[in-house]
Amino acid sequence: QGQVTLGEEMTILRGDGTKGTVLVSASPIRDARGEIIAGVVVDTDITQLQETIEALRLSEDKLRQSEQKANDLVRYAPTAIYEIDFRGPRFISINDAACQMSGYTRQEMLTMNPFDLLDPPSQLLFRERIQAVLTGDQVDELVEYRIKPKDGRELYAVLNTTPLYENGKPVGAFVIGHDITVRKQAEADREALLVREQAARNQAEAAVQLRDQFISVASHELKTPLTSIKGYAELLVKRGQQVQLDAHFLRMASAICAQAGRLEKLISALLDISRIEQGQLTLEIGPVDLGQLLQ
User: Fold this and answer.
1) Among the ranges given (116-130, 172-186, 246-260), the one the predictor scored with the smallest mean pLDDT
2) C-alpha distances in angstroms, 182 versus 111, 121, 157, 158, 285?
3) DSSP for residue 260
4) 234, exposed or middle or buried, with CB in 10 Å at 0-12, 13-18, 19+?
5) Is residue 274 classed exposed, middle or buried when 0-12, 13-18 and 19+ CB atoms within 10 A define those classes?
6) Which of 61, 71, 107, 146 is the most buried (most CB within 10 A)?
7) Is the bond preceding residue 28 a cis peptide, omega within 30 degrees?
8) In what order do the strands lie in the sheet containing 19-30?
9) CB 176 within 8 A of CB 159
10) 172, 84 in Cβ contact below 8 A?
């Protein structure tokens, strides 16, 4: 019909049975009278180009799906995750767990300075770490901070910080926060328990030492007069037997002698206990008649 066709897609069937897509452009050739005497047709095979475009489209779809999955994982992760910009400083993104940990809504946090969530010592530490990152110094990835949540409760967190760079310069950080309040409380309780246990042990050791001192002093103080009492009692018994004193008198003198002997053994045992606890007891090794000992 004498019309010019530019870039019309057509599907072709090749000799090997495969299909392809060509881009067809056609234009008539006219003679001096304007009548069509021939035509020019240009076919461009765009099959590979279309396959490449389709592969790119599928890759873009997969990338969008992966990004959506990654965003969902971050948003609904049980661990606090957020991104900050050092140039504010300000929050760029916050997941739900970070909002739950702080007690603030996402909208509130996006308008806040990240320093506002830290107590003064943690603020100082945070500033020092930002300055170190900006100057290119290496910093520890895991650092403990004390957080100031909206409800005012005591909250501790370990923040794992990964610097974010722009044109080779650190401009922000990707942060993963773990609530360690329960662990810190358990550590504080354990420390307090250890302090109480050490105090009780010191008190018990002091009481034992005082008891040992008392036993040692009392035993030595009692042993001297008891030795005299026993000696005189034995002398009375011996003299009474010699001069044939009254039997009642001899029984009383014998009883005094026997009881003094019992007290002497008791004091010796107390002294032995004191020496054992002080590591000063000297053992006398020799044969023992077990039958007599058991009787």
Assistant:
1) 246-260
2) 29, 20, 10, 12, 59
3) H
4) middle
5) buried
6) 146
7) no
8) 5-13, 19-30, 36-45
9) yes
10) yes
182, β-bridge pairs? none
Q: CA angle, 226 as apex, 222 and 232 as ends, to 5°? A: 160
Per-chain mean pLDDT for the chain: 82
List, as own/partner pairs, every contact residues 41-46 make where C-beta atoms lie below 8 angstroms and the sequence separation is at least 24, other chains included.
Answer: 45/20, 45/21, 46/9, 46/21, 46/22
To which residue do tokens 């049980």 refer? 78
CB 232 within 8 A of CB 225: no
Residues in the chain: 295
The edge-to-edge listing of strands for the beta sheet with 90-94 is 90-94, 80-85, 169-179, 155-166, 142-147
pLDDT digits (tens, 9 = 90+) for 10-50: 888 888 888 888 888 888 888 778 787 787 778 888 888 77
End-to-end CA distance of the chain: 141
Bridge partners, residue 13, by sequence: 19
C-alpha 105: how far from its chain's center?
27
**Cβ distance 93 to 172 under 8 Å?**
no
**H or E stretch including 210?**
helix 181-243
Consecutive H or E run containing 19? strand 19-30
What are the Cα distances from residue 229, in Å, to 101, 232, 240, 261, 268? 81, 5, 16, 10, 16
Are 253 and 242 a contacting pair, CB within 8 Å?
no
Query: Is 133 in contact with 170 (CB distance < 8 Å)?
Result: yes
Average pLDDT of the segment spanning 261-270: 81
Mean pLDDT of 134-161: 84
Residue 90 Ramachandran class (φ > 0 left, ψ -120 to 50 alpha, else beta): beta
